[in-house]
Amino acid sequence: MTDAAPRPTANENFLLINAFAPQPESPLVAVTRRISDCGCNLVEARVATLGQDVSVLALAVGPWDAIAKLENALNKLERGENLRILQFRTGPKPVQNTLLPYVVEVVSADRPGILHQLAEFFARRGITVEQLHSTRYRAMQTGADMFSAQVTVGIPSTTHIAALRDDFLEFCDGLNLDAIMDPMKF
């Protein structure tokens, strides 16, 4: 036999849902109603307005039959509403006791590739990006196009933090980025 993924327990089936709707309508109410009506529970949810659309990212958990019912309800919802829905089965987030949570904030004049360079810096060092929010905006005083990112990363506990911070600040200086890296405070 091959090493197959373990079967989820009867009440631990997960469905990842991403729903999009044009502003000002938000798919949040419709999606959360279906999750509740089908006997599932909401584990996590995020809402963001990107361009002309509102996006809801939700993780639902429940017994296998409730998740199957939710899948069908979401398919019907997509056909009947002005929504686009992507859904698939997933599992719980693995516990990672060896990662240290840090928050990184970056601001700079906007130019192509900044986010890619940041992501590559972390990836080369085995640092995971846990959450990210980036935006482009115009500076009030000058009208210059600006880039801003807030990133939560997981740093392996074996990493020498002072050396990483020095490397990161040198990396940012080379790209003319204003940045900080601090431990997450709960």
From TrEMBL:
Residues crossing the lipid bilayer are none
Q: Which GO terms describe its cellular component?
A: cytoplasm
CDD domains for the chain: ACT_GcvR_2
Q: InterPro entries from the entry?
A: ACT-like_dom_sf, ACT_dom, GcvR, UPF0237/GcvR_regulator
What GO biological process, any one, is recorded here? regulation of DNA-templated transcription
Where does the ACT domain start and stop, copy by copy?
Answer: 103-182
Q: Which organism is it from?
A: Tahibacter soli
Q: Which UniProt keywords apply?
A: Cytoplasm, Repressor, Transcription
Q: What is this protein called?
A: Glycine cleavage system transcriptional repressor
Location comes to: Cytoplasm
